[in-house]
Design a protein that fits this description.
Rossmann fold; homodimer; nine-stranded mixed β-sheet; 9 strands; alpha/beta
Chain lengths: 242, 242
Amino acid sequence: MRFISQTSSDGVTEEFFTLGEIPGVLWTPEHARGTRPLILLGHGGGQHKAAPGNVSRARRYAAAGLAVVAIDAPNHGDRPRTEEFGRIAAEMRAGMTAGENPGALVAGMHGHLAGQAVADWQAVLTAVQRLDHVGAGPVGYCGMSMGSGLGIPLVAAEPRIRAAVLGLLGAYGLAEDAARITVPVQFLVQWDDQMVPRDQSMALFDALGSAEKTLHANPGKHGDVPSFEVDSSLRFFTRHLS
Amino acid sequence: MRFISQTSSDGVTEEFFTLGEIPGVLWTPEHARGTRPLILLGHGGGQHKAAPGNVSRARRYAAAGLAVVAIDAPNHGDRPRTEEFGRIAAEMRAGMTAGENPGALVAGMHGHLAGQAVADWQAVLTAVQRLDHVGAGPVGYCGMSMGSGLGIPLVAAEPRIRAAVLGLLGAYGLAEDAARITVPVQFLVQWDDQMVPRDQSMALFDALGSAEKTLHANPGKHGDVPSFEVDSSLRFFTRHLS
C-alpha cells in the first residue's frame, strides 16, 4: 500500500493511495489513533472514487469518527479501460438507444466487472485494516446504483462486512447474491427513478435475505437522493457497527 | 379543559383530561415551561389514547422536549359506542369473514368516524396550545393504520399541522385528501402486512401531494414496526418542527 498524498481540513484527513493496480482514497478523523468502524464506499457507473457525492458522504462519516475508503472500480477513474469493457459499454449504450431493457443491459455491464471488483475490495479491506488509525474494527459497505451492482456480490461473499447501505438498482442478475445477504441493509429507492423501474427496485429489496432491512423511498429521479439520507445512513451504520 | 390526574416519572409528566366529551392525555417534559412543538398522536382501530404503543412513543417524544397529546377516537376508549358504529363494525367483521376487500371495509369505517375525529382534534389542538407549558408552537401529527385513516383528512384540512408521520394503510377512500396534503410526510409500510396489500400502501404514498415525503418499509406484519422507527420519526419531527 503506497500513500501518494495526505491533506487535512475541517477535522478530516484525506489520503490518496494505490494498492497494486488499485487507486484509492482513505478518509479518517484528523489525528485518529486506534481501531474504528470502516465503511467501504462504492461509486456509481461512470463516476470515480473521489466524485463529489462520495467525498461529501465520506467526510460526513469521518467527521463522526469512522474510517471510509473508496477505490476506483475496474475501468473507472484512474484505471485503464480494457478493450472488452469498451465494447460492452458501447453495446450497452447502443442497446439503450435501441430501446432494449436498460435493467438487463446495466446488469450485464455490472456482471462483467463484479468478479474483479470483489477481489479488489477484499484486498483493500485487508490492507486498510492493517493501518494503525483504522484497525480491524467492524466493517460496513455503502454503494448505490453500480455501487450496489458490484456491492451486492461483495456483501454476499465477504463475512467481514456487517451492514450495508444499498439501492438505486433493480433485481436483474442480482437476486441470488441478494438472497445470500443476511446482514442489516438500508435500501434506497428514488420514487421517480428514470433508470430503474419501481417494481424492479422493490424486487431487489424483496430478494435480500436479511432479517433486518429497511427501504427508504423518496420522490425524485435517480440522482436526487435527499441529503438527509446521508445522515440516516450514518445513524444506521453507527447503530450496527458501534 | 378539565384535568383529571397528573403524574410524573422519568422526566415526563402525564396529564389525563377531558375537553367536553373528548377524553385525552397530554405528555410534556417534567417542569416544562414555555412554548414547544406539539405532536397530535392518533391511535389504531380498536385501541385507545393510552394504548402501550402510544404511551411509549409519547414518552420518548416528551423526553426529547416535545409536547404530545392523544385522544380517544370516536367510539373508542372511554367514549360511548353509538348504535350506528356498532352496526358498521359488525358489518365490517362480517364482510371480512365473507372474504370481501378488507381495504374497502376499513375505509368505510374510517369514513364514518373521520368528520367527528377531525373536529375533535381541531378543538383539542386549540385548547392544548393555550396551556403555558405547550403554547402555540409548530404542530405535527402522528398516526398509523386507523390513525392515518382519520389523520389524513385532518392533516389535509388543518393548516396548523406542519409535518406528519403516517402509514400502515392503503389508498381506499383517501386519495383525494392525500393529494391535498403538502407538508413533509414520513410514511411507514410493513412489507408483510397481512391487512394492507403492498400495492395499496404504495398507492397511498404515491397519492400524497407533499414535495418532501419519505417511505420507510420494514419486514414484518401490521403490528411489527421496528422500534428504531420511533427514533426516526422523532428526528423527522425535530427536523421539521424546530
